[in-house]
Design goal:
alpha+beta
Length: 254
Amino acid sequence: MPDYEYGEDGLPKRKKRVRQRQSSDSEGSTFHEDPNAGSRTRKIYTVDQPDGGQVHLQTPSEVSYYEKLRDQYQGEYEVEAPNDLARLSQLLTLELTIYRKQQRMLGAVVYYDDQGNMAGWEEVSSAEQAQIADSLPKLQAEVRNLEKALKLDRSTREGTGEGEIRRYMETLKGAANDYKIHLSERYTKFDEFVSELRWRLRVLRLPEEMEDDKKYHNISQETVIEFCEQQLRELEELDKEFAKNKQSLWVGQI
């Protein structure tokens, strides 16, 4: 039985079926196209490179991959010299090339029409997949060489002690932030304690004819002392909790 959908007039109408058409290129790859999509001309996406230039990408996934990787490199490492920024741009280009090849190695690649909408997918031939597998080691070696030139590879960082210094500084920064938060909480608690104690002392010093006010607020030398002891215990507990749950995590790393 055919499927139906209802139009604005409320009458049933046969659903439109989207048929895929196939075409092949000279390399043996097969394209599966949606005839209702726009031209297969790819929309170009422009993103900024670390050295101030721009690179043109083909899909939204490439944009996401490139920008995330670029921001991670620049956020993790201090790359500021013009020649280093140029090398970093080259490194990102190689990483993007590897990313594209890895996508094609999966056997199918999504492509988009001139409006940026998904228009179908491309089947990648087994011969091309084999060629990609052969080319990847060379590209990955070039990536390692650029990382070494920029002192971003693990062996160089550990050889110069840079990795250890960075980890130490990150630990120290985290510890300082935790301690800052603890001091803020402790100060707030102590400030509340002092404020409460002040008004209790004022009531305690009221003359004898205002004894009813003292009884109403349950203020006496004994209750004031008990209040102080309780507040001091809570401050000590706050310090113990910080030492157990926070300080003990990083004290052995500094």
